[in-house]
Amino acid sequence: MKFTDGYWQTRRGIAPLYAVEVDDVRVDEAAGTMTVYAPTARIRHRGDTLNRPMLTVTYSSPAPGVVRVRVEHFAGAARRGPEFAVRGEPGFLPVVKVDETEGVLETGGLTVRVHRGGDWHVDVEHDGRVLTSSLPKSVGAMTATSGPLEGGAWVHEQLTLEPGEHVYGLGERFGPFVKNGQSVDVWNEDGGTSSEQAYKNVPLYLTSKGYGVFVAHPERVSLEVASEVNTRVQFSVEGQSLEYYVIAGPTPKDVLRRYTALTGRPARVPAWSYGTWLSTSFTTDYDEATVTSFVDGMAERGLPLSVFHFDCFWMREYQWCDFEWDPRVFPDPEGMLARLHDRGLKVSVWINPYIGQRSPLFDEGRAKGYLLRTTDGGVWQWDLWQAGMALVDFTNPEAADWYLGHLERLLDQGVDAFKTDFGERVPTEDVVWHDGSDPRKMHNYYAELYNELVFRLLERRRGRGDAVVFARSATAGGQQFPVHWGGDCDSTYASMGESLRGGLSLALSGFGYWSHDIGGFEGTPDAGVFKRWLAFGLLSSHSRFHGSSSYRVPWAFDGDTDGEAVDVARRFTHLKMSLMPYLAAAGEEAHAAGTPIMRPMVLEFPADRATFGVDTQYMLGGSLLVAPVFRADGTVEYYVPEGTWTRLLDGADGAHAETVTGPRWVTETHGFDSLPVLVRPGTVLPVGARTDRPDYAWAEGVELRCVELPDGYDAVTSVPTGGPDGEAAHFRVRRAADEVVVTTDDAPGAWTVRAGGRTATAAGPGTATLAV
After folding, report:
1. Which among 280, 289, 273, 438 is positioned nearest to 345, based on CA atoms?
2. Residue 485 in contact with residue 517, Cβ under 8 Å?
3. Which pick of 375, 456, 727, 768 has the fewest CB atoms within 10 Å?
4. Which residues have C-beta within 8 Å of that of residue 519, sequence separation ≥ 6?
5. Would you call 565 helix, strand, or coil by DSSP?
């Protein structure tokens, strides 16, 4: 929200109070806090302290390298939940020092320096370098004295930006990847991928200078990113207080590691979830015969399939959700699910947290108080999406158990996973939550309750590491409950690009896994769009064929005969299956450190300014550069960082594998069966022995492809074995002069090392030496 009218004037009807100077700094050593008292005008004599508002700013640290800041106008204002769960390091206290010239709080290399005397001025430093500052008119409490907002109150902070500093994150945003110049409201909406609205709003931004800021409010957070004051990021919330965290780097990976330690790391996901998910699509006609024909068609064409998904109309129209299979098209659901399991498939079904009025569950939920109520005691309802739909009140433990009980029935029938759709259409006016939650805060936070509830049920039933949802809405902390997909996009090249931008922004918001609808959701893609999207989708962490009014089986795009679309699907599905040892290791990194599988270039190359604005390519894990093709003529322009990179699709580290040397921009033209996929120099790429499924013993028969290893290279490559706790086999790879030596003590079976077109094999633990 903007509070000014240009640089000089205040917006009409707004009365500002700004922290002007420091009156006092007090330390609570036991709590590790430094509290600053800031009058909102110059205090020249005692009389100026009368009738004079004051702002209170408290600094603390929940963990090394993280500073918590709380700005308060009226500290006694009521505080209703929910609040984000922020986990500090137990027992940790920062170092606090105060003298006549400054107050200093130090934590893990991060320093807050409050200057005493003169205008309001607070610096945040990392290892002696100023990252950002709070300057005059940065800390403010605003009141609306007239106009449509009369009576409203807000608190804001403004943190400085340097020239050339880029801002990223704020959730899954489909507009420009670099957020400078944008006004962003952190507010979940069902707006599709072609608007400024977002399904997954996260009040976290990172900058190219190597720090992050997390605004710890589940309600609407408004940000002016170099847009109100073009040298600052302003963030504001309604009410009398504002709380935020400054998170140190120095790299973006360090910021994400610290942030996900505070708000929760992504869970491990099951191996089978990395495979292909095939959907019925949304409004298409289907029954068990349709489903069987799709499954048979994939098998006949050599297209590996892991999950079959039933979208909305597995339930009868107008009855979403009643969690009952429509008997007109699925008269034997248990038998059908058993038959799909016999084919080696997992089954996913679509759900949402809404109960339409025609659902038999509506009357039950209304009678038992399980549905969100209005202030007059009725049930909140509207007609968007489903006629007379209501919302399950998950703040009521009995309602949550009731909802889960219906999902339990589906699990008993043989369902393996849920697509947890929606969760954004949550009202804020004239409603009362069971636990007394603030409706403004519940709007975004509802997605957290919903997805956690379903995810924890799957964990309880299937075990940790074997639970997965396909979620659309989220906020801070939602990364703990994967996987998330990009929502409703058009079937165009432009929507491919906006979907990727959304995924890259979400990756810089703490989310480890991400997917999107191959071919686009709305409309029917032409064959070219579909084939280009195949390569992009099958080189994402998770891959799903899904559409709205048309099927997404590959042969539907080949006319009367199997042709290029099937061939492209086969090529990239097999490639992804062979990369499972590598992708699983990247998934383990997401779980252990919060580093996403799909990575913006700036995340992997933060010292290379040429990557700062790149949003049409990404790193898949730390070693594979992927540049999707977004043009009908096959032209693609992409940036190659420093070094000699090797083309994977030409057979990385074969004797005649093609290379591309950077740093430079490259323009190429690719057929439908190709796109730029480059292996980073200095990579040991583990390639699996199978291409027919994702859930195999990844370390057995693994091939270690040594790509452009420098002389003196000495590192350990860990290859996950597929165990539930992230077990891995470890291979120490050394390069000296013209020799590569690989040693392992725990390889579970045969393995191969490959370099320069030569190979050496071993039967298990031991050493292999290869002349190169």
Report:
1. 273
2. yes
3. 375
4. 491, 525, 529, 530, 533, 534, 545, 546, 547, 552
5. helix
In 10 A of CB 81, how many CB atoms?
Answer: 15
pLDDT for the residue 580: 98
pLDDT at site 363? 98
Q: Locate 413 and state its tokens.
A: 């029938």
Give the neighbor-by-neighbor strand order of the sheet with 204-207. Answer: 24-28, 33-39, 54-63, 66-72, 241-248, 211-215, 204-207, 167-169
Rg (C-alpha) for the chain, rounded Å, is 27
CB 728 within 8 A of CB 699: yes
DSSP 656: T
Alpha-carbon torsion (190, 193, 198, 200), positive or negative: positive
Distance CA 233, CA 38 (A): 21
Evaluate the CA torsion angle 740, 746, 748, 749 in order and state its sign: positive
Tokens of 514: 């991400």
Q: Are 735 and 711 spatial neighbours (Cβ–Cβ below 8 Å)?
A: yes
Which residue, chain included where needed, has tokens 């079904």? 349
Q: Nearest 10 degrees: CA dihedral of 557, 563, 566, 568? A: -100
Beta-sheet strands, E only, within 297-371 = 307-310, 346-351, 354-355
* ω into 321 cis (within 30 of 0): yes
How distant is the alpha carbon of residue 80 from its chain centre?
Answer: 27
Select from 418, 501, 496, 506 the least CA-distant residue to 462. 418
Find all residues with CB under 8 Å of 461, minimum gap 6, and list them: 408, 411
Across 747-766, b (16+ Cβ under 10 Å) vs e yields bbeebbbbbbeeebebeeee
DSSP alpha helix (H) spans, 478-579: 493-507, 527-538, 564-578
Give the strand pairing for 714-720 and 728-736: antiparallel
Using CB atoms within 10 A of its CB, is residue 16 exposed (0-12), middle (13-18) or buried (19+)?
A: middle
Q: How far is 740 from 772, CA to CA, in rounded Å?
A: 7
H-only helix segments in 217-273 = 252-263
Question: Which residues does the annotation mark as catalytic?
Answer: 421, 424, 488
Extract the runs of DSSP E, i.e. beta strands, from 146-203.
Answer: 153-160, 167-169, 182-186
What tokens does 117 get? 């005397």
Mean pLDDT split into 10-residue runs, the chain, 772 residues: 92 96 96 97 91 96 98 92 96 96 97 96 96 98 94 97 98 98 97 96 98 98 97 98 98 98 98 98 96 97 98 97 97 98 98 97 98 98 96 98 98 98 96 98 98 98 97 98 97 98 98 98 96 98 97 90 89 98 98 98 98 98 98 98 95 75 97 97 98 97 96 96 89 94 95 93 94 89
3-state secondary structure of 52: coil
The predicted structure's pLDDT at residue 601: 98
Please tell me whether residue 511 adopts helix, strand or coil conformation: coil
Alpha-carbon gap, residue 71 to 63, rounded angstroms: 19
Distance CA 308, CA 14 (A): 55
C-alpha to C-alpha distances, 144 to 13, 186, 239, nearest whole angstrom: 6, 21, 12
Is there a contact between 733 and 713 (Cβ–Cβ < 8 Å)? yes
SS3 sequence of 259-310: HHHHHCCCCCCCHHHHCEEEECCCCCCCCHHHHHHHHHHHHHCCCCCCEEEE
Structure tokens at 350: 């679509």
Which region, left, alpha or beta, applies to residue 163 given φ > 0 means left and ψ of -120 to 50 means alpha?
beta
Structure tokens at 765: 């633990």
Helix (H) / strand (E) element for 221: namely strand 221-225
- Which pLDDT belongs to residue 560? 61
Q: pTM higher than 0.70 for the full model?
A: yes
Sign of CA dihedral 268, 270, 274, 280: negative
